[in-house]
Structure formats: C-alpha cells, structure tokens
Design goal:
This protein has three helices and seven strands. It is an alpha+beta fold.
C-alpha cells in the first residue's frame, strides 16, 4: 500500500544478470515499475524518474513471480516508489502521471533511468 516500505524481490535484468529491486531503488530518483506492462505506454521521460517493466520488451524478468507476489500485482499495474524507498502509489498510468506532476517531476528531457 502507498506509504509502506517497498518490498524487495529478486529479478533478472534483460542481459540475464540477477539483481534485486532494492538495487533499482538506490539513488535520489523515483522508480516506476510496470508489471507485465506495455513499455510503450510508460510515461514520457521525466528527469529524476527511472522506469522499468517486466513482460514483452521489458528490461526485467520476473520468472519466479517474486515481484508480482511481493506487490500483489495484476498484469498492467504500475508501482511508483519514492526516492526514500517507500511506495507512493500502485495505480493505473493516469493516476501515476498526475502524482508525478504533483510532486514536481515534469515531462521533458531524457530520463537517465530509461533502459
């Protein structure tokens, strides 16, 4: 739920290397995670936002279902994690976009986390 510490889970990167969600959260950025989400539907680039997705053309693989289970996600859902490692929202993209605008992460410019 929003306001709770974001759970950790093992995932595999697109290059086949094992990593953990906590590794993706490290740094002074917001992290947006899409579960089985269409990467092309992700928000436009925002400075200070790293975006990762599982599923077709995603950069993460959740083969063991650990990410899905830790967050209780259904296909197409998104999780927004604050820079302090706490969840800001589990929601649809319209809600996520509004939240990003409200916290001052405006569109424009390349996002260093778009991988």
């Amino acid at each position: 739920m929003a306001g709770e510490r974001a759970p950790d889970a093992p995932v595999t990167g697109a290059g086949g290397l094992d990593t953990r969600l906590f590794s993706l959260f490290q740094g002074p950025h917001w992290t947006l995670l899409g579960y089985e989400a269409d990467r092309t539907a992700a928000p436009t680039a925002r400075k200070g936002l790293h975006i990762h997705t599982t599923g077709p053309r995603g950069d993460l693989n959740d083969a063991g279902g650990h990410f899905r289970d830790a967050y209780g996600l259904a296909a197409g859902q998104w999780v927004l994690v604050r820079p302090d490692g706490y969840m800001a929202a589990i929601a649809d993209l319209h809600t996520i976009e509004a939240h990003l605008d409200a916290v001052g992460l405006r569109t424009g410019g390349a996002s260093p986390g778009w991988r």
